Amino acid sequence: MLPTIAIIGRPNVGKSTLFNRLVGKKLALVDDRPGVTRDRREGSAQLFDLKFTIVDTAGYEEDHIETLPGRMRQQTEAALVGAAGAIFVIDGRVGLTPLDQEIARWLRGTTVPIILVVNKAEGKAADNGIMEAYELGLGEPKPISAEHGEGMAELYEGLMPVIDKWVEDNPQEPEITMDDEYNVRDIEAATLQLAIVGRPNAGKSTLINRLLGENRLITGPEAGITRDSISIDWVWHDENPPEDVDPDRKVKLIDTAGMRKKAKVNDKLERLSVADARRAIDFAEVVVLLLDATKGLEVQDLKIADHVIQEGRALIIAINKWDVAQNTGALFNGIRGALDEGLAQLKGVPMIAVSAFTGKGTDQMIKAAFDARMAWSRRVPTALLNRWFEGAQERNPPPAPGGKRIKLRYVTQARIRPPSFVLFGTRVDQLPESYRRYLLNGIRKELDFGAVPVRLTLRAPKNPYADTKK
Question: Which architecture does CATH list for 4-169?
């Protein structure tokens, strides 16, 4: 557990640029247009020897709470709850604005320590803005350039006493780390990295809010509200946990932007948002593809599912808005059949009916995600793998194209997450794809991998005489 620092300010002062600077990578979307950031986004930050969780927030605006800017402001205000401190950013080139002064009045009324930062302070154009910042009554301003990395030492001086005070008040237990070879109990107890993906307006943010029991993410009738991929730590209470596993199981929920057909994406921000969602899939362990029950399964859903499978992530299909769906039996069976036909390379993907509005099926979905992660992380004992391999060949021997026998010698599991196997033999380059699929299906069904992506690589032993000169 690390102290949390929130970045606060009006739109377009460089909050996301500072966020990216502190986390050391371009996690938050940045654009010249104001209002790019909508939900609050967290990241692991480090500034010299200071380590903390940094929160990027939407630009603070004064619109009514029922409007989208108003809901964004509500999320910004929520970011201060429990924070160790806040970085209040103003634009040094523009100078103080009435909205800056309004935000400062709000911040002065809180008990959270404030570090006042004047961004875009490179050169002399920001000198007046730096002097005006003293009027806010929030102490000495720290001039920085988030884009160029200037003024980080001054920011460190402002953050150090705030973080030191938090650490003093919140003593920490030693951190436990694990590598790729941890045992079954460690896998069950580890935090589940769970991404929620789907087309715009499928209800991804609403579903996460339902799981959390609070309006953590901005929702509304407008499609495409979510832009950044937002990760949130959560604890799910498992009514029937595995043996020796705490029933309060840790989950990192990752909300993503809606993914439309590529041909329909013309806006630069939407392209960045979709790319961000694809990166979220890459970092997840299990991915929930959320469908809209009122619209059924579309080609774009299959494309998203195929991308998840190609990236080697465990996949779960959740059909949202089940509380308002019509002819549910026919709908469920129709989607099941279309999925099995459209994802022929991975049939039997878990499919669960849920309602983000009522909470129906959400526990079942999370349980399925933990089970999928377990299968995705499974390592088969060598003896069991060899017995299966021998039996598979006895039941269905490899073909002999052109009368020349393909000899399959042995198979080994090279890695987990996703399960990856290497098959050694002679003339494996001539092995038909149908026989390769036969082996893959056998691995999934007979070795209890279920519907998780399994990879099988074919290799021939190196010829010891290949490089010998005649």
Answer: 3-Layer(aba) Sandwich (3.40)
Annotated ligand binding at 131? The verdict is: no
Candidate CATH numbers 3.10.290.10, 3.30.300.20, 3.30.365.10, 3.40.1390.10; the one for domain 382-459 = 3.30.300.20
Is 255 annotated as ligand-binding? yes
The SS3 assignment for 310 reads: helix
- Helices of type H across 318-360: 328-342
250 annotated ligand-binding residue? no
Q: Which long-range CB contacts under 8 A does 333-342 form with residues at least 24 apart? A: 334/296, 334/297, 335/291, 335/296, 335/297, 338/297, 338/302, 339/297, 339/302, 339/305, 342/297, 342/302, 342/305
pLDDT (mean) for 60-70? 51
Query: Is 455 labeled as ligand-binding?
Result: no
CATH architecture group of domain 184-377: 3-Layer(aba) Sandwich (3.40)
The reply, when asked if residue 197 is annotated as ligand binding, is: no
Confidence of residue 205 (pLDDT cuts 50, 70, 90): confident
Is 258 annotated among the ligand-binding residues? yes
Question: Which letter does DSSP use for residue 294 in this model?
Answer: T
Q: Any binding-site annotation on 414? A: no
Residue 323 annotated in ligand binding: yes
pLDDT at 216: 67
- Is residue 330 a known part of a binding site? no
- 125-140 pLDDT per residue, tens: 889 999 999 999 999 9
Listed in order, the ranges of the chain carrying CATH 3.40.50.300 are 4-169, 184-377
Q: Is 142 annotated as a binding residue?
A: no
Q: What is the pLDDT of residues 89-118, one digit of tens each?
A: 999 999 999 989 989 998 998 899 999 999
Model pTM above 0.85: no
Annotation-wise, does 43 bind a ligand?
A: no
Q: Is 198 annotated as a binding residue?
A: yes
Look at residue 191 and tell me whether its pLDDT is greater than 70. yes
Confirm or deny that 9 is annotated as ligand binding: yes
